[in-house]
Write a structure and sequence with these properties.
Blueprint lengths: L21 E4 L2 H4 L3 H13 L5 E3 L10 H18 L16 E4 L15 E4 L3 H4 L6 H17 L2 E4 L2 H11 L5 E4 L23 E5 L8 H10 L8 E5 L6 H8 L5 E5 L3 H10 L2 E4 L8 H8 L4 E4 L3 H5 L5 E3 L4 H12 L3 H16 L3 H14 L2
Parallel strand pairs: 1-2, 1-3, 3-4, 4-5, 5-6, 7-8, 7-10, 8-9, 10-11, 11-12
Length: 376
């Protein structure tokens, strides 16, 4: 997938966006503080103010923080839920002629006058393809947002070919352009010393990710339990923030010997966990890119992940692929990872590190510069 020559019409300005020729709609950052937030933050830091302006919902360039942000986020969602894709009270940016906006999430096209000149960044189409993992209001809003995108057919950028292919299955390819710019690894996590986690010893499997239904920790826990790894002295550590589905995950984990749920883990301890685990286990039901697997790969840790998913794409297929809905297959992969000799582990670890090391922020930003500034 690639864009046409000078799709943004910037060459007439000497390759530089002038005035408000390019506006970043960063309303996402008012509500979202997950990985998508960091991507949006790095993009705006790179291009604003030198190449573009920025807008946070109806606040202009003011980026709210703290309690103000939480209040504004609630007001913004009230507006989206109430007005949805109505033409009433749309946000009208001062963009004319070849000017355009970059929406850092599809949801926020609902309250703007979307044009074919604009660009939308799409992380995934989960609310459409996996509606059972989201509440009905979220699914309904995203259905309207994607319908607006389908009607207008602006440029769309995806974070993975996995997301791009699912988008095309739903909406076809007749858009101004469709382009994949893969995400990058935030290596700051791995800078610094490692600190052993108290009372953790011996072999263990590791899962890192929010405790929520779509991460599918339930299936992984069942695989660990039914595989009787605890009898072999192998533990299972899961760490991450609480999400929708945490209660069910915690209830099951409490019944399985050898399992430890850790919640938030300091970076120094997380580095130690990545460096000492036997394998990384994440048979996720939905990932837009596959950052958790890429982090594991950077540490040379073998990922056990859902077959034919964005997780597989992120690590260049250097992983063990499993059916996420079938715990016995997950258990088999865990046994396979556990039975590897040091001589078998070494080349796989090198391949994983090489793949992850190539996913740099510099490469990511360069691809965005080529799209937004040189038009290639």
């Amino acid at each position: 997938m690639n864009g046409r020559t000078d799709p943004l019409g910037l060459h007439a300005a000497g390759g530089r966006a002038c005035g408000n020729m390019l506006v970043f709609d960063n309303s996402l950052s008012i509500l979202n503080r997950t990985g998508a937030y960091h991507i949006a933050k790095d993009l705006t830091r790179e291009f604003v103010p030198g190449w573009a302006g920025v807008r946070y919902w109806r606040l202009g360039s003011f980026a709210p923080e703290g309690l103000v942000r939480k209040i504004v986020a609630r007001l913004m969602m009230l507006e989206i839920n109430w007005l949805r894709d109505s033409e009433a009270f749309l946000i009208r940016d001062k963009v004319d002629g070849p000017a355009f906006r970059l929406f850092l999430d599809p949801l926020y096209v609902l309250r703007s006058r979307l044009t074919k000149n604009d660009i939308v960044l799409c992380h995934d189409v989960g609310p459409l393809t996996h509606s059972d993992l989201y509440d009905e209001r979220t699914c309904s809003n995203y259905r309207l947002a994607y319908e607006k995108i389908r009607r207008v057919r602006p440029g769309v950028v995806f974070v993975s070919n996995f997301s791009a292919s699912h988008f095309e299955l739903l909406f076809g390819s007749d858009f101004r352009f469709l382009k994949t710019i893969p995400l990058y690894l935030r290596t700051e996590l791995f800078d610094g010393p490692a600190e052993a986690v108290p009372s953790v010893s011996g072999a263990f499997f590791l899962t890192v990710g929010a405790f929520e239904t779509r991460k599918n920790q339930i299936a992984a826990l069942k695989a660990y339990r039914d595989g009787e790894f605890h009898r072999q002295g192998v533990g299972y550590i899961l760490c991450g923030s609480r999400g929708a589905g945490h209660a069910e995950i915690a209830e099951l984990a409490g019944t399985v010997p050898g399992v430890r749920l850790m919640g938030y883990v300091p970076d120094a301890q997380l580095r130690w966990l990545y460096a000492n685990a036997e394998a990384f286990v994440l048979p996720s039901l939905l990932e837009g890119f596959g950052m958790p697997a890429l982090e594991a790969a950077y540490m040379g840790l073998l990922p056990i992940v859902s077959a034919d998913s964005a997780l597989v794409e992120a690590v260049g297929a250097n992983c063990l692929q499993v059916r996420p809905d079938y715990p016995p297959a997950i258990a088999d992969a865990m046994w396979k990872a556990l039975s590897r000799s040091p001589a078998e582990k070494a080349p796989t670890s090198r391949l994983l590190r090489d793949t992850a090391s190539a996913a740099t922020k510099e490469r990511f930003l360069q691809q965005w510069r080529e799209l937004l500034i040189t038009g290639s």
